[in-house]
Amino acid sequence: MASSQASGVNTPPYVDFKRAVELMLDGHPVIFPTETFFALGSRALDADATARVYRAKHRSTVRPLPLILGDWEQLDMIAKVHDELMPLLKRFWPGPLSVIFPARLRVPDILTGGTGRVAVRLSSHPVARALAQAVGEPITSSSANISGNPAVVSVNQLDEELIASVMGILDEPPVPAGGLPSTLVERMEDGRLRLLRAGAVTSAQIAEAGFEVVEEE
Question: Which top EC class is given (predicted)?
Fold first, then answer.
């Protein structure tokens, strides 16, 4: 570490799980693995921490941040869920399916991008889920990159500017699978699902679960 500092090279701030939780509880975003890619996240109900995520990524605040749940009970903390969607959630959660719900009033406006809605999934990655459980609320889970750059599956691929903006990188197995991002859908008033982003869960799989999928025009 000393030689890295002497040469002017910053050492990535790797942390263990306990320290990652402490950082999140103190309002600091952390980089962590998910089932798809590495993510940059913070406590969902901490507006200041959410703002730090936007700044670190150079992400427009009109674009809502997706959320990861630690368990099923955390869903009610942040979202109003239509009963008709429960079979869909039980079929694909935990897993890479994000669903947009109306946000509860306690959810900070900055998190929803002013839309009043949140995109949520129950992650199948044990570390991501454990983080949310440990901090006691859902966590934001935006891809760990500068906006516009590719998502990454290894800490070695992280952008140096992003690394410099965070206090913790949690690199624990399993390694993100990469490939497609989480699929993003939203329930329409007629009960059909609008596909907002194609991803790891296919439209055919959703249809097999009994839901009609309409692609966004």
Answer: transferase
